[in-house]
Amino acid sequence: MTAASPPSIAPVPLILILVAVSAINPIAVNMFVPAMPAMMRALDTNQAMIQLVLSGYLFATAFGQLVLGPLSDRFGRRPVLLAGLGVFIAASVLAAAAQSITVLVVARIFQGFGGCVGIVLGRAIIRDRFERDEAASMIGYVTMGFAIAPMVGPFIGGLLNDNIGWRSVFVLQTGLAVAVALAAYALLPETHTPARETEARPTLRHSFAILSRIPAFWAYSLTCAFGTAVFFSFLGGTPFVAIDLMGLTGTQYGLYFMLVPGGFIIGNFLTARYSRRVGIEIMLIAGSLVALTAVLGMSIAFLMGWYHPLALFLPMYAIGFANGLTLANSIAGAVSVRPDIAGAASGIAGSLQIGLGAVATQAIGAVLEIARSPFPMTIAMALFAATGLTMAIWTRTARS
């Protein structure tokens, strides 16, 4: 593949392509989750090691965004995007063929590194084409579109695992990534003009030094990170709460999980429609309040002894809705503080987001193996939600 750019593309087809490339990452995160207990048995490993298949992916996603965002500021969005998709495809093949937990974890790390390219560059590409508040709306449309992936991903993954086996999940991921890479190669234009050879090209160190001195960047980025950590705490704990403690099958888990991205889609729809009208800071505070209220509701249900899947997934529907209000708006704010280094801003904000999520996922999984109770998960979710609300309130003063 060469990195030659095709002709310019209209906004609607551009958004559709960005939905496709951005969906690769959540597909890879969510589709295999119902198969985690089966992988643990097949590869003769323990829960802590199988948790690395998820958290290792997330750590690599965090690191990859930190690297790939600034690289796209230097060399352009398109060649970096195509290279990242190539890495994801190769890693997916390796994951499907893995015969040990070590090989699977390594494959997932490279999957995470390559798969994050669609998310980090999708945000930067939107900021290349649109101003701040309009960018929030466009990011809302993109995230609303690719939320379909985590909506159906766990169901498809559970169905494949229950009927064919866990390796089929990675085979399907490989095929989907190949199709997306071919579409991006054929249709996605270059939207960022790298610095000329005679000009200084931005480095990660230079970009980080600039962004670290802007309070608004940290306010937006940390709102995104702590809001998303609520979801990742759930993601790290819920396979074992739902499957081991509540006795759901992988397919049943996938069906219930559809509630979560369903709320996320509605939240993103409201973001796309109203961010320009009410302002992104108001949307951030509203979403953070909804998330904290939902976590408290989940905790109360478990304290009352209602150990039904709806006690877990109905509050997560509200949290998905809350993330729909906060994610696109916080990212739009973060990448708009310095549009000339939007790739670096997207990468650093995304790295904070996924890095904190990876820590939450691994920690929750380890604690639940000992505690065998949902309360470590709900306590962590409440702490993250409360901190996210504090950061959202900070955005109102940090910008001034």
Can you tell me about this structure?
It is a single chain. The protein is an all-alpha fold and 400 residues long. It has a single domain, classed as Up-down Bundle (Growth Hormone, Chain: A). Helices cover 83% and strands 0% of the residues. It has 17 helices and no strands. The longest helix has 31 residues. The termini are far apart. 57% of the residues are buried.
What is the third-level CATH name, the topology?
Answer: Growth Hormone, Chain: A
Order of secondary-structure elements: HHHHHHHHHHHHHHHHH
Compute the separation of the termini in Å: 46 Å
- CATH superfamily placement: MFS general substrate transporter like domains
Shape: globular
The residue ranges in which pLDDT falls below 50 over 5 or more consecutive positions are 1-5, 196-200
- Based on CA atoms alone, the radius of gyration comes out at 20 Å
How many structural domains? 1
Average pLDDT metric: 82
* Major sheet description: none
Question: What is the number of helices?
Answer: 17
Number of strands: 0
Derived from helix and strand composition plus strand pairing, the structural class reads mainly alpha
Q: What kind of oligomer do you see?
A: single chain
Name of the CATH class: Mainly Alpha
- Strand-residue proportion: under 5%
Give the % helix: over 70%
Give the second-level CATH assignment, the architecture. Answer: Up-down Bundle
